[in-house]
Amino acid sequence: MHSIDRLFEKSSRALAQRTSRRSLLAAFGQLLTGAVLIPLLPMDRSARAATPGAKSARDDPQSCDYWKYCAIDGFLCACCGGSSTSCPPGTAPSPITWIGTCHNPGDKRDYIVSYNDCCGKVSCGTCECNRNEREKPMYRPSRNNDLNWCMANADANYHCSVSVLLGVAEQ
Amino acid sequence: MHSIDRLFEKSSRALAQRTSRRSLLAAFGQLLTGAVLIPLLPMDRSARAATPGAKSARDDPQSCDYWKYCAIDGFLCACCGGSSTSCPPGTAPSPITWIGTCHNPGDKRDYIVSYNDCCGKVSCGTCECNRNEREKPMYRPSRNNDLNWCMANADANYHCSVSVLLGVAEQ
Amino acid sequence: MNQMLLRAGLLSLAACFRVIAAAPLPAEHLTVTAMPPVNAHRIYIVDEAFNNEIDARVHVFDGDTFRRLGQLDAGYYPTYNLSPDGKTSAIGTSYFARGGHGARTDVVEFADNQTLALTHEIILPPKRAHTLPTPFGLAYSADGRFVYVAYVTPAASFGVLDPAKATVLGEIDTAGCVLVIPSGPNRVSSICESGKLLTVTLDEKGNEASRAFSDAFFDPDADPVFVQGIPMSGGYAFVSFLGDVHEVDFTGAQPLLRKPWPLVTGADKGRWRPGGTQPGAISSPMHRLYVSMHQGGEGSHKNAGTEIWVFDTVSHQRIARWPMRAHKLSDVLALQVSQDEAPLLFAATNQADLAVFDALTGQLRHIEPKMGQTPWFMHNP
Amino acid sequence: MNQMLLRAGLLSLAACFRVIAAAPLPAEHLTVTAMPPVNAHRIYIVDEAFNNEIDARVHVFDGDTFRRLGQLDAGYYPTYNLSPDGKTSAIGTSYFARGGHGARTDVVEFADNQTLALTHEIILPPKRAHTLPTPFGLAYSADGRFVYVAYVTPAASFGVLDPAKATVLGEIDTAGCVLVIPSGPNRVSSICESGKLLTVTLDEKGNEASRAFSDAFFDPDADPVFVQGIPMSGGYAFVSFLGDVHEVDFTGAQPLLRKPWPLVTGADKGRWRPGGTQPGAISSPMHRLYVSMHQGGEGSHKNAGTEIWVFDTVSHQRIARWPMRAHKLSDVLALQVSQDEAPLLFAATNQADLAVFDALTGQLRHIEPKMGQTPWFMHNP
User: Which residue among A163, C209, C330, D136 is buried most deeply as judged by most CB within 10 Å?
Assistant: First the structure.
């Protein structure tokens, strides 16, 4: 449960910086109470990766097929001067994020991934990637990648997206 | 000389709205003194239209091959909600312009053309046209199409370009 | 032979004479084009300009003449809507003092649809929801007196605006429910994470008078609905990822949840799915639902459609399947249909083409190439 | 046979065990990438983003690793330059309060090239020349003390800025001559409609001390020069539309006009021409001039080049012709070359590809696709 705890801690800390306690509880109540375990740990894996990329692409941080990117709809920071976990020079990471659960074919485990936006410069425009595994519409914001997660940054302009492994999605 | 007079009157009136008399004389002295007749009325027509468009394209205001467009580098207003002589709804014509001399294959005459920019909305982005017959670099501004001729408008954003016949280029 | 030559010579002379003698073209006058009157076939296309996101636009296009009528600036992550009388465009957007950085200004700008000129603006608190276009980012009350704007900071709420007085009247917390679905003169519903609708009723001044939650009208875990609800007579239809149609009647004081009906049945269920950025459109007068459909699985809900499926909204029967590749069109991201009795169906593709179909026969009328960079949503009167 | 099965079984078991037993991947940490140290092969590419002109950018690219290093916002019709020490990017640009409309702010923004973060800005009068990129829209004095910015309203003048104190020191009228060609610590030359250079010498405070006109160094009627002058040791080379090279030595108090020499001779004269948005580049250490050449006539000066021609700047002999179609490259709009002894030649095409060549051999090293929308000018240290 270590990684799940980290997820909660990270998400709630980040949110708390920007939102009133009441709104926080209202909007993300499920995330904080543990009910989140169900959406975070989907049981149905049969539909995953209907057309899996080649092994090299699945391991290439500059490819949309990279396994960690299963819920990124945006530009890959790895093509924009950053890496899969690092924002490009001169941009600022978003403190709030959406969450994915991606299957790593290398070790056959599911991982919880935090997708942070990198903010403060105009759109990178390179390596557009649109994957939406277990992505949900904006009424479930913690699973939604259409929101501009730079929204709460001092410079709210979206530049690109990174993927940060939080831990294994244990069942 | 009627049309030439019109050109001078129009250009100088428009310029006078925006520039000091001194600068006006300095920058566009030739245009006002008549020395402009040489660049306005080039004698060498042998190089014109190395690869002339089909007749239909030469007469189509939505085609870059339209004969009046011989010195437009930008977007054709005729594709943006305007026409070859009319700015699209909600935009404002530039009071200052650059000038071209285009050959009309229909009546085999050369015409002096005022190219106005239409201003106040972001770039139209449609029907990009890049023709530069007798176009000159920006040290000859009255013949230059790289300058943003919306520069002196209240809303200086470039949207598209029109071509307005001023008269026959008499020799 | 001599006669022939003579005739030819005379013809040449006549031709020369005509050219020499014809009066030169007259001087032209620079004007600004007037818009044609609004008609049912005018469409407003939101171009997100995803590679240049601070430069979104709304393209205005005439489905009869196939002419681009003009353009509105739309800023960053815009939300757009028409006033109930169709005369005004309202653009909720964000600007930065230095293009892509610097101080943020959230604003609703109003434009006259007869001139495409801006008339006035209302500056918002910097809370506007930055998300992809839906019909519910900004909405008018039925009488046009209020404008509602969805906020996400990520705390969810909405602003109530008075467009006539150009003021923000207030902000109403929506307890985590998002977007503004307008109904009547004074009701706003928002979609909750639980699948319920929260409906806030406003008083005369735009303050909250009461609120109530509906039952859940869909299961957000098993089969979420697209937030791009489809306007229909008396309410909206929400299509789910797996293809169920959840109609909600908003004519009463509280939303009435109708029994869902399926677009996809039998072996096709879960294989053929709706998708895109605006997956469907309804012609209320003709009782037809158009949905952009593709073959795919979990996570494919943003895929563009290879076919448009046509349904009767009364019988719930599928009437037609229109494959796009028959027209050499790429896949369809957004659909809209005009609300007249000779309806046009507009389809924007993932290659930024705009196709215009006869909505009754599926006959292709026109393909307008390069309708902006990423035309993801369309509105019409 | 049994042994074979057993072996296979054990292998499978071992494989399973390895997978199960391996520790899961550790949690990752979100960081911001540090820039590699500046080197001679870093290049700054001005993307005018012509279809979305309020959203111009500068892309930073490493010619050794072929990596995009990052990006700078560049606003509307930007002018860009590097400080003499290469440590600072100066971006002269214009912003509007509402994206493409509203109050205009002209500004020079400064960025640290080691972090790509903005450090400070200087607000200008709203007079900055809105034109395509040249090296002379914004320029530093040789000692870095002054920054000059070209103004056109259309009256021509320039601003003198103090980048250290972040202030505008003043404005100097240039009597219709345009652009800012810097030389020494305190001289600015502008190109006049007559083909002359106006050189203004500044005093300690950045005010005008004196001015003088040169003779005409080209004939603007018969054969105008491109305003994209090419930096070379001690001055700039200006290539003319017909392909003559006009070198100007700016090391003295007044510009020294060298005798022009031709790129094109004999029957090729007037048929092969230089063209594009940045038609040439010079490697000063290697004494080589690279020019983007096409076949065309009057009005073709903005055409992209089908070949790169290479000249010895001492002997004025052509050394090589490199056809782009040999590399399946589209035509070249902009050229730049690194200033080291193992020079790289960068070529940006009209399809927005960036090609990297060995500048000595012409060997293609890399093609970087989609380097922005319209990469029209390149700078390097």
Answer: A163
